[in-house]
Amino acid sequence: MARMKFICDAERCIECNGCVTACKAEHEVPWGVNRRRVVTLNDGLPGERSISVACMHCSDAPCMAVCPVDCFYRTDEGVVLHDKDTCIGCGYCSYACPFGAPQFPTNGNFGLRGKMDKCTFCAGGPEANGSAAEYEKYGRNRLSEGKLPACAEMCSTKALLGGDGDVVADIFRSRVLNRGKGSEVWGWGTAYGKPTQGKQPTVQPTEGKKS
Question: How far is CA 150 from CA 20, 37, 120, 121, 142, in A?
Fold first, then answer.
């Protein structure tokens, strides 16, 4: 059985926030909640990198361990989901998660807290797949339609990968081994061709014709 995982290639992420927009549009995410966000490290400095962050659907999820009402559960595909009907909004999961994935919508000027919300890997919730109740609480269930998460599909540079963990790891491993260094990280050789080392381009002389 496949175990679904995310990975973001920091060498490819261009901080366009397309993944964030795709997620909010696909699921009509409540105001004040970003199921996915882009974090930039060393902003404006040499070595600047951006990475797309959301729930990583941990194999040993700390949110599941600290929830006092056990509203979290794991699907057969390894996706960590939660039941909003069971959630009491205590916030323990938010403190336990190292990625800040569980969030709470703000329902007023004073930030009144409601049911926790987080990335679902586009796998919906405990309601029937594709039902109106599922969409209202958790958004669209793309996995039941045989599709990848919207954020990964909309990534313009394919920096964000989502799917079977083994396949995702193989893709990333192949990139690391083949991308090279310097300009080759961005595929310069692929786009413009690699120069021939140690050779100068030769031009064959042509015989002129007399008029």
Answer: 10, 14, 11, 9, 8
CB 10 within 8 A of CB 157: no
> 25: part of which helix (H) or strand (E)?
helix 18-27
CB 160 within 8 A of CB 151: yes
Tens digits of residue pLDDT in 88-107: 888 899 999 999 899 887 65
pLDDT at 192 over 60: no
Cα 47 to Cα 42: distance, rounded to the nearest angstrom? 7
d(CA 81, CA 104): 15
> Which residue spans within the chain are E strands per DSSP?
4-8, 37-41, 49-53, 72-74, 80-82, 160-164
The predicted pLDDT at position 209 comes to 52
Residues 92, 82 contacting (CB under 8 angstroms): no
pLDDT at 114: 74
What are the structure tokens assigned to 107, written together? 């329902």
Residues 6+ apart with CB under 8 A from 169: 5, 7
Structural domains of the chain, ranges and CATH numbers in brackets: 4-177 (3.30.70.20)
Per-residue pLDDT tens over the stretch 109-158: 445 567 889 999 999 999 999 899 999 999 999 999 999 999 999 999 99
* Beta-carbon count within 10 A of 154 CB: 18
